[in-house]
Every structure is written in C-alpha cells, then in structure tokens.
Amino acid sequence: MKQIVTVTLNPAIDKTITVDRLTVAGLNRIKHVRMDPGGKGINVAKVLVQFGASAVAWGFQAGVEGRVLMQMLDDLNIHSRFFQTAGNVRTNLKVVDEATKQTTELNEIGQQPSDSVVQDFIRAFEAEMKATSLLVLGGSLPPGLPQDFYRTLIVIAGKYGVRTILDADGEALAAGIEARPFAIKPNLQELEALVGKRLPTDEAIVHAARSIHAQGIPCVVVSMGAEGAIVAMREGTFRARPFPITPISTVGAGDSMVAAMAHCLAEGMPVEEMVRWMTAAGSITASKPGTEVCTLTEVSLKLDAVEVTHL
Ligand SMILES: Nc1ncnc2c1ncn2[C@@H]1O[C@H](COP(=O)(O)OP(=O)(O)OP(=O)(O)O)[C@@H](O)[C@H]1O
Ligand SMILES: O=P(O)(O)OC[C@@]1(O)O[C@H](CO)[C@@H](O)[C@@H]1O
Known about the structure:
Pfam families: PfkB
Helix content: 25-40%
InterPro entries: 1-PFruKinase, Carboh/pur_kinase_PfkB_CS, PfkB_dom, Ribokinase-like, Tagatose/fructose_Pkinase
Number of strands: 14
Strand content: 25-35%
GO molecular function: 1-phosphofructokinase activity
CATH superfamily: Ribokinase
Function: Catalyzes the ATP-dependent phosphorylation of fructose-l-phosphate to fructose-l,6-bisphosphate.
Family: Belongs to the carbohydrate kinase PfkB family. LacC subfamily. Belongs to the carbohydrate kinase pfkB family.
Bound molecules: adenosine-5'-triphosphate, 1-O-phosphono-beta-D-fructofuranose
Oligomer: single chain
Number of helices: 10
C-alpha cells in the first residue's frame, strides 16, 4: 500500500500553558505547562499513526528545538524526514484561560531554510511522490519561502498522480488553489479572507464553498468550530453538526479533520461517512488538552453522534 506524506515546512514545539484567568498587562501565574510536537502536518501525522495508517511526516528542522522535536516524533512512533537547516525550530505558545475556556495563540514566525536545503527538499520530495498516494500540506510557510511554494509541491505531486489536501491560509492558500489540489480545508475566517467578504449565514458559506468547488477543487471543507462543517463535493453539499463537548484545547482540531479525510480517502470510504469521520475527529481533539489528538477508537465510537444533512 502506498503511503501518505504530510509536509510541515514550519514545524513547532507547542507549549501550552494554563492559567486561571488571563490578565493582559498583568502578572499571570501558570498552573500547568505541557509540550507537544506541533505544526499542522505533524498533527495530521499524529492522528494517522493513531489510526494505523502508513504516514511519513516531512519538513524542515533546526537547532536544539529541532532535535527535541525529532525525539518527540520518535516517541510517538511517527516516521519522519526533516531536512536540517540553520537556526532553531520555533516554539508556539498556547495560553488556555480556564475561566473563559478560551485559548490565545502566540505563534513565532519560524526559521528561514537555506536555499540549498530547499533544493535538497524538492529533489527528495519529487522522488518520494512515486511511492505516495496522498499528500497533506499544512500550515504557514517559513520566512524566505515564496508564497507559491505549496503550488510548486502540488504540481510536482500531480505529475505522479498524487492527490493533495491543502490546509493553509492567506496568499499560500490562494496560490496553492491555482494548482488545483484535491481538497482544501479553510476554517470560516480563512474562507472569508479567501473570498474577500464576510459570510454571515450557512447559505453564504455554501455558496462560497460551491463556487470554489466549481473552479476545479473536488473537495472543499469549511470548518466552523463548534458549529461543525460544510463540505462541497461532486456527490453533493453536506452540513455536519458535531455532538456537544467540553472544549479543552481546540488546537489541532482542524488538523484532525484533515487527517480523518486522508484516512477515509485512503480507505475509499463513501463521502457521507468521510464527513462523519472528519467532524468526529475534530470534535474529539477539541476536547483534549494541548495539541493531543483523537484516537481511532474514540472517533469510531462517536460517528453516529454526528448529524449529517445532505443539502
Ligand atoms: N467547541 C467545539 N465543539 C465541538 N466541536 C468542535 C469545537 N471546536 C472544534 N470542533 C470540531 O473541530 C473541527 C475543526 O475546528 P475548527 O474549525 O476550529 O478548525 P481550525 O480553525 O482549523 O483549528 P486548528 O487550526 O486549531 O486546528 C470542527 O469542524 C468541529 O468538528
Ligand atoms: O503558524 P501556523 O503554521 O499557521 O500554525 C501552527 C500551529 O498553530 O498549527 C497547529 C494547529 O493547527 C499547531 O500545532 C501549531 O502551533
């Protein structure tokens, strides 16, 4: 069976700190700290490993934090290929406010990979596509990489018949879409930025998702936090509503959706089932601390609790 490759060009160590109530411009005493390997493609790989899929995480890494990150991936039994560059992997701070149940994210900009390492990456990536069925591209681009870097990778993957799921935002998403990835998964804010207007109703979101689908993107998934998701595909447009949870940290919820999509595509599952899997995976991850992700058993048990409507 061919593998799934996830790419995290700007990985991170996620440092999640919990405070009773966040006081801006005041002293905050930290109750709890946890560290997780982070970055969108890495989170997708974490879920896929839990699901028993054959996945490899690719990207750039640097410095002491890079070594710590590689050790964290090893500890989670995640196969990886990270190209070493100068500097240090970033640390992204996630501040959980227990009183409001809100998380504030402070993400570093990341480390610029050298040109020669980028060229090495592209060469090896192209070779790897021959053994790959599905590609997941996730997260921000590190400084120095052109905004159309994802488009370049999608074009290379396409030469080998590899389908791509793209989870990015801003210019990287807009440029990536030009290469016609198989799927995109913007959250609502990212979709609004992409279409350049507010989308205040389900009808407006459906219209925007369908119009992007009509531009040649087979699967458009719009994630909407506690409101669930809207999915536009050839088979139809679906509205998914999750079961209620107590959100602990929503960090990685969107990545868990992407991972569930990759899993379902690899398994050739029917579209409506895929919508169920994606929603359940996102919601279970949102109910876990830090950047901890859902497991196969947890998701399987909750599939029937997701409400899916064919619009
Ligand atoms: N508070 C919540 N209650 C129930 N389900 C949730 C909640 N937050 C997230 N989810 C689930 O996770 C999915 C993805 O969430 P969201 O739209 O916040 O993704 P995202 O913004 O891409 O997240 P991230 O970038 O942090 O991974 C939702 O579609 C939903 O199924
Ligand atoms: O700064 P980016 O690359 O946009 O997002 C990075 C990040 O916030 O995304 C993941 C959650 O989706 C976290 O693990 C990680 O810290």
